[in-house]
Design a protein that fits this description.
Blueprint lengths: L13 H15 L3 E2 L2 H6 L14 E4 L3 H14 L3 E4 L16 E4 L6 E5 L4 E4 L5 H8 L4 E2 L10 H6 L7 H4 L2 H4 E7 L5 E3 L13 H5 L8 E8 L1 E2 L3 E9 L2 H13 L4 E7 L1 H11 L8 E8 L1 H17 L2 E7 L2 H12 L1 H8 L4 E8 L5 H15 L5 E4 L4 E8 L4 H20 L18 H5 L1 H14 L15
Parallel strand pairs: 2-4, 3-4
Antiparallel strand pairs: 1-2, 5-6, 6-10, 7-11, 8-9, 8-10, 12-14, 12-15, 13-14, 13-17, 16-18, 17-18
Helix pairs in contact: 1-3, 9-11, 9-14, 10-12, 10-13, 14-15
Length: 472
């Protein structure tokens, strides 16, 4: 059992699909794969959304491969879905109308690195960990860290964020330019390596966050940052979520340049202790990281510890040892698996909302009260520096009544965030799972504008159909 997404999309005519598959087979040979196992791997299976596999998968190796797939599919009106590593969380890689999944994992090259300009040019299938491994000896790194080792093309497509966003921003802030394959197979270049431009419409940021619905990214130019001289990680427990949030607000207001600041509620700390073999106090916790010179990091840590003490924080411990930092942040990144281990066999859905930081404590505490009232388990982690938090809801997917309570909880969570001036998703994206919330958040006029853009750039609706925009 899972959440069924209403699918009003017609599938391609059988003869049209047959013709497209024949043309793709002639062009790609054994790089066109139609086996059920591989097709299933390219459907969305991470959360409760039911998987919807494509009709075939093409393993792309260069930009011309993407162009040829798009040209063949456009001729017969066949859907095309870009696939990076499949770590998206709202059904972005599902194929509700069938079609062709273009797997970009082999397009994983670093094309250019300009250390002096702090940028690089890469292919979309490159993962963030592979990029940073490549850059490590050059004194620079790419800071966006959504937790999963996602592809950078996928991260741009979903406008990914993560633990470093409070200092370094999101993908929106770190993409300088793109090359994108449009609906006729030609390539759009959206910008240059210049750090700013006033030349024409901002096409780069039109495609960042479009979830593959307007075209397929085939090359990215992204910003890099210098590796800090000193990095320190810290942990601080609090008596309440409100105290932890207040400490964060004060730190930001006083200008402490925190690189990472993550909130774990008591349930999430308990799960991490068990899974990652930690011994943290099982109360609300802030995990932090400071970047800079040795003196700057020491000063930042001292200033924050004073603020934490004023807000009910307990012992404040920090370390610069790489192995200790890695252990702490690995536990944070393993939060999903830690939650899953709390109830073996249960389904897990990770969902997120984002509110103005001044309302974060209200939103989290009301959410915890809702979970208690509905008798549900859902530990909470939050990018507290920017008001974004995640719930990892555990439910028995074979228990219809419990699933109904789970869906009710997720709906109430979004309504609560929107009522506080927030959004239905801070970084997971819309995909299939959150389409129904866009109208309330942005209004019908904004949706009409989005549909007009979609129609202009993808008149045949072949790029990732059934995502973002609700049926109008």
């Amino acid at each position: 059992m899972g959440i069924t997404v209403v699918n009003p999309l017609p599938r391609p005519e059988p003869q049209a699909l047959k013709a497209a598959l024949a043309a793709l087979a002639a062009r790609f040979g054994n790089r066109l794969i139609t086996s059920q196992a591989v097709r299933d791997q390219h459907a969305h299976t991470t959360t409760w959304l039911l998987p919807q596999p494509p009709d075939a998968v093409v393993m792309a190796q260069e930009t011309s491969d993407i162009q040829d797939v798009v040209r063949i599919c456009a001729r017969d009106g066949i859907p095309v879905i870009a696939f990076g590593t499949g770590t998206s969380l709202e059904g972005q890689v599902n194929a509700p109308a069938g079609g062709i999944s273009i797997d970009l994992r082999d397009m994983n090259k670093v094309l250019e690195v300009h250390v002096e300009d702090l940028d690089c040019v890469i292919q979309p299938g490159l993962t963030r960990k592979a990029l940073n491994e490549h850059l490590r000896d050059q004194g620079v790194f790419f800071p966006i860290d959504p937790g999963a080792d996602a592809s950078l093309g996928g991260m741009a497509s979903t406008r990914a964020s993560g633990t470093n966003a409070v200092r370094y921003g999101t993908m929106r802030d770190n993409v300088l330019a793109l090359k994108v394959v449009r609906g006729d197979g030609e390539i759009i270049t959206t910008g240059t390596r210049a750090k700013k431009s006033s030349a024409g419409y901002d096409l780069t940021h039109l495609f960042v966050g479009a979830e593959g619905t307007l075209g397929i990214i085939c090359e990215l130019t992204i910003k890099l940052r210098g590796i800090p001289e000193t990095i320190a990680a810290a942990a601080c427990s609090f008596a309440s979520v409100r105290g932890a949030c207040q400490a964060t607000i004060l730190a930001i207001q006083t200008g402490i340049p925190v690189a990472r600041i993550e909130l774990l509620n008591a349930e999430q700390v308990k799960a991490c202790n068990s899974y990652s073999k930690l011994s943290l106090p099982e109360t609300p916790l802030l995990l932090l990281e400071f970047h800079g010179s040795e003196n700057e990091v020491a000063e930042q840590s001292k200033n924050f510890s004073e603020i934490a003490g004023e807000c009910g924080g307990g012992d404040f411990t920090w370390t610069t040892r790489p192995e200790d930092r890695s252990k702490l942040w690995q536990a944070r990144h393993d939060a999903y698996w830690a939650v899953k281990a709390l109830r073996p066999g249960a389904g897990v859905v990770a969902t997120d909302v984002c509110v103005p930081i001044s309302r974060l404590a209200d939103c989290v505490t009301e959410t915890e009260a809702d979970l208690k009232r509905l008798d549900l388990i859902s530990p909470i982690v939050g990018h507290v520096g920017d008001g974004n938090f995640h719930c990892s809801l555990l439910c028995d997917v074979d228990d219809g009544e419990e699933m109904a309570r789970g869906e009710d909880f997720m709906h109430r969570l979004v309504e609560r965030a929107q009522a506080m001036g927030g959004t239905c998703t801070g970084e997971h994206g819309i995909g299939q799972g959150k389409q129904k919330y866009l109208n309330a958040e942005l209004g019908p006029e904004a949706l009409d504008a989005m549909r007009a853009v979609k129609q202009a750039l993808d008149p045949q609706n072949i790029f990732n159909p059934g995502k973002i925009l609700p049926a109008g």
